[in-house]
Structure formats: structure tokens, C-alpha cells
Amino acid sequence: MRLAILCSGQAGQHREMLDPVFDTPGCADLCEIASRVLGQPVERWWRSLDEGALFANANAQFAITLVQLANWQRVGPFLGRAPSVVAGYSLGEVVAWHVAGSLSATDTLSLVRERARLMDACVPPGPLGAGCMALWRGRTLPALREARTQAMARHGVSVAIHRPAGELVLGGAPRAMDAFVADAALAAADLKRLPVAVPSHTPALADAVERLRQALTRRPMTEPRVPVLAGIDGTLQRRAVDALRSLPRQVAEALHWDWCVETLAALGVDVAIELGPGNDLARQLEAQIPGSIARAVDEFAIAEDIAPWLDLHS
Questions:
Q1: How many CA atoms lie within 13 A of 211 on its CB side?
Q2: pLDDT tens, position by position, 243-270
Q3: DSSP reduced 3-state for 173
Q4: One domain, residues 35 and 164
Q5: For residue range 176-197, what is the model confidence (pLDDT) as tens digits?
Q6: Looking at the structure, do residues 65 and 155 belong to the same domain, yes or no?
Q7: How far from the centroid of its chain's Cα atoms is residue 124's Cα?
Q8: Same structural domain for residues 149 and 106?
Q9: SS3 of 237, please?
Q10: Could you count the other beta carbons within 10 Å of the beta carbon of residue 268?
Q11: What values do phi and psi take at 264, rounded to 5?
Q12: Cis (ω within 30 of 0) for the bond into 227?
């Protein structure tokens, strides 16, 4: 068995996702760390957010990271083996370096908070709920691909993430995405607006790249215990210094999650666990790698169920 840990990105956040973190005594130390990074009690902060604020970039990135750190802390001891590789989707790539042992929980949370601040400084977020990204689903006929290319140029929209099976995540300012989604030339497209408040992985965030690299250099990183996939090109990263190359660039360059899945397949990965929230990456992996089994932590009633499930598939 070759096991992969998958670290999720934004768009799957919801009001109840931090409840297990707050209710689990073993997560108390992690909550204390999160409170120190935030400068206020993390549970009070989370409970104070209204439904719209859950999707504000800074709030979403911090909360999703905390969920994944808590899930890794809960399930890691029950794996009984080290994963073969860690892969992170968008924001999840930062979390992946924590899972690989390179970043402490404190440095991961503080880096994510700084990352969100730098991204917001490049493109001031629009009204809450005005998503800056959209998912283009399914393979596309040549005529519609041409219409998409023209509409992207017309409205100032860029490819943010290449996903398997020809899917794309597209990014642009809220008004640009409004116009793009409403474009009559794309009436036949299968488009889903995503609740992401900044156009991540597009040139609009170019000014954040060097500042994020500087923020990384201020945080001590140890050598990863397992390889981390680079979202920008799907290559295996085996040294801490590799993070200085990939993490800053990925905020402003299109990600190739399709290539990451191809790398996982080439490595012979046949079992995967997604830290969540949600199971989008797990579903993609099963669909693209024949014979693979992938589940999200959310799908297990308790963390102890991970061990027998892994034994069943080893």
C-alpha cells in the first residue's frame, strides 16, 4: 500500500466544521496556539462570524487550516505508517508542509494568516458572497473552448487551477466573474461560482509573491520527512528549501492539480486520506486512478476507525 495525505483548499468551509476541534480535549493545545496567533480566543472569534464572513479570505484560510491541523493531529497516530507523499490543493499546499514535518503548527497558522493578508492587499475583496472564482466542469467541445478563451480575454479572467478530466478553476475580480458567468457565448457551459473571495493563482496576485517568500524565510523549516507535491508543476519536493520556490509562486501562477494526480498515479498511490473539510480531492483521486481508494476524515465517525480501514486496504 502506498498512502497519500491530501490537504484541501478553500470553498468547502461551513459553520459546523470547527465544532469537533473545540469539542475534542486533545485539540486544546492546538486551540491555544490558534488563539495566540489570532490575538483572541479562537472559539469566540469563530462564533462571532456571520455566514458571509465565513467566506472572507482571511477567515476562511485560517479556519480551514485549523481544521486540517486538528484532523492530522487526530488521525496521524492511528495510521501506523508514514505516508508515501503529501499533496496540497491551493491553500492545502501550505498545510502539506506541516504534515510532512517541516512547519510547526504555530508557523503554519501564522504563515497562512500572513499569506491571506498579502493576497487581500493585492486585490481588495469585493462584497462578501461575490465569488472571484468559478469551476468550469467537464470536457469542452472545441467551439466552446474557443468561446471560453475569447470570453476570458474580454472580461479579464484567468485560469487558476487545471483539474483532471479537463476541468478548470477560473479566477478574476468579482465584476469580471459576474460578466464572464453571464456571457451569452457561454450559455452552454457547466459553470459553478465558487465562494472564494480573491482570484487566487492568477497574475492579479503577483505583488504578493516576493513578500510571501520573505515571510517564509523568517520561519524555521526542517527537512520534510516525506515528499510534498508542488502544485505549480506536480514535482516531488524533498527539501525544505523547495518551499521557497513553490509556495510564493503558487499564489500568482496557475496550479496543475491534474499533473499532481498524474504524479500520485505514477508513484503507485492506491490509498489516500483527505484532511478536509469536504472530500473533493478524494473523489477526484478515485475517479482518476483505477483501483484507488480515497476517503476524507469527515467520512469516519471517529479517528480510531482509520486504522482498521487502512488495514482492510493494505
A1: 15
A2: 999 999 999 999 999 999 999 999 999 9
A3: coil
A4: no
A5: 999 999 999 999 999 999 988 8
A6: no
A7: 21
A8: no
A9: strand
A10: 11
A11: -60, -40
A12: no
244 contacts 198 by C-beta, under 8 angstroms: no
Global confidence as pTM: 0.95
Q: Provide the domain count of the chain.
A: 2
pLDDT digits 0-9 by tens, 112-125:
999 999 999 998 66
- State which amino acid sits at residue 286: E
Last residue of a domain, one of 177, 194, 211: 194
Contact in structure between 297 and 276 (CB atoms under 8 Å) = yes
Shared domain for 94 and 46, answered yes or no, is yes
Interatomic CA distance for residues 146 and 64, integer angstroms: 36
Question: Is beta strand 158-162 parallel, antiparallel or unpaired with respect to 168-171?
Answer: antiparallel
Q: Which CATH number characterizes residue 275's domain? A: 3.40.366.10
How large is the C-alpha radius of gyration of the chain? 19
| 251 three-state secondary structure | coil
- From first CA to last CA, the distance across the chain in angstroms is 5
Q: Which three cell numbers stand for residue 19?
A: 465544532
* Domain stop point among 144, 177, 194: 194
Q: Which amino acid is at 159?
A: V
Please give the mean pLDDT across all residues of the chain: 93
Which domain covers residue 118, as residue numbers?
A: 3-124+203-313
> Residue 127 — φ and ψ, nearest 5°?
-55, 140
C-alpha cell at 47: 462564533
CA angle 112, 113, 114 (to 5 degrees): 90
